[in-house]
User: Fold this.
Amino acid sequence: MQQKILDGRYELDRKIGEGGMARVYAGRDLRLNRRVAIKIPHRHTSGDADFLDRFRHEAQAAAILAHPNIVDVYDVGQDGDIHYIVMEYVEGTDLKAVINREAPLPVARAVEIAEQIARGLAVAHRAGMVHRDIKPQNVIVTPDGQARITDFGVAKSHLSTALTETGVSFGTVDYISPEQAQGRTATPQSDIYALGIVLYEMLTARLPFKGDSAVAVAMKHVTEEPTPPRQINPQIPIQLEALILRALDKDPARRPRSATEFADLLAGYARISQQDTLVNPSFNSGGGRPPQRAAAPPPTRQIGGGTAGTGNTGRVSIPPPRQTPARAPRQEGLGCGIFLVGMLILAGVLGVVLLFSTGALNGLFGSLSGGARPTMPAGVPGTTTAPGEPSATPDLRISVPTLVGMSDGEAQAELLRLQLIPAPQQENSATVSQGLVISQAVAPGDLLEPGQPVTYIVSVGPALVSVPNVTKARVENARAQLTDVGLQITVIEEPSTSVDAGFVIAQSPSAGLRIAQGETVTIRVSQGDMVRFPDVIGKTRAEAEAIIAATPGMTLEFVDVQGRDRLIDFDTFAPGEVVSALVKGGSGISNGELVPRGSLIILGVRAEN
Assistant:
């Protein structure tokens, strides 16, 4: 597509993505001077009224979602036969490209990305939206590691990979849930299933189901169990494998109950894995042999409501923590051992008594009190030793870092590195960019015990308000409604044959969209059924009469020839020049001025002499 400006506001630059139903362009909002992404459906959808209705309505619904892990929707509109959605432009790479280039990803990174996606889905689900097309291609990963979900619009109903063998549109079958593959209604658990596949793919560099056709893959989602991911990548911890397989359960009721629960389970796994690393620093250290894993329990399968120890469901249950068995004391040589220990203890006691009796210990303590005091090694924070104390206790508290100005991801990573618990909260801000820390509850430099929470405030950008519907309202009422919700107004007046003067013809952005307080809504206000008076003043009488005769909506009623007795500055005009014009029964008019349709025009012309 050649460079084009939509609605006089959105300038298209270059294509940055394309799916089965739409293209996405990088562009610029000329009014707000910001980069945007603009999604435009393919031309073959222009005759699909149902699709275009969903395109508009679902884009408007997505615009109410405001979360750091969701790409913002700014506007939806139509310029001629071109429908479009204007979205936040996010610098980054889609997750599919990251997987193709780097998978299998490190466990910690894959878990972090999946948790962010789950957090974004939780917000959408609370707003009553099911994405229905969660896949790596619809997740953008920014350079600082933030995951952003996109395509809350076309992707909900028209997925990019069409399936035509059965005449049913399945969409992207690699990530489709069993219930969607069977034509049932998608639910939040359907998105959780798709996210489970994304996590599986990040950790194994493979999809759980492959087939010769889209139908074959869809049927495998319904009938087959996935290969346990640890069989592909043994570095995946067994607890994480169990969580992935739970998300991929054929029964939606057995998956995590919500995206929030899934995110919390992933976050809990991340904390557990950090603790495991601290307890067993040699794990994944690259040196020595990896710890041996206990053999998995034999798989079970359902038989008439019970279980049998044969068959393979591919599921891994989480075994209970292994108890260290108490070892029975050895009986050999018991009496001799006790005797020897007793003799050693007795010898020690007698030695201490002897030292006290000879004053040797007093001399030792005296030399310490009068000379150098024992000290703890340098670098231990908060170490103190009082006079006469034999040792010091290190202060293990942690100095809180400066978080203000960091991104939420950077703040969480820094706190976790210091063994503090991130406790982010969100707040609107008109001055701090979305995703950055505005303030923190604990001042930088304050000392906290390990594991203590640190609360901080993350900007979610300016407060969003729903644009009122002011179309067909009087301009005074429209101004009041828009001002009441904190929006600015720009008024453009123009003629209209269908809307009475003083009433709003149209507005941009559209009613129902959520935009930042302080942004401007442009309203086009009718001037009534008017026509523009042509440029005839200054022309000859003959030229003016011909122009007015060719202009629809007005009629030349009379030519008033004016001599020296009536025309001021008579000599400054040429003979026969049009010097003035007015609407019969009204006032004078100028070139280009609007006049009511059907007006009778009177021209003033300088006399020849």
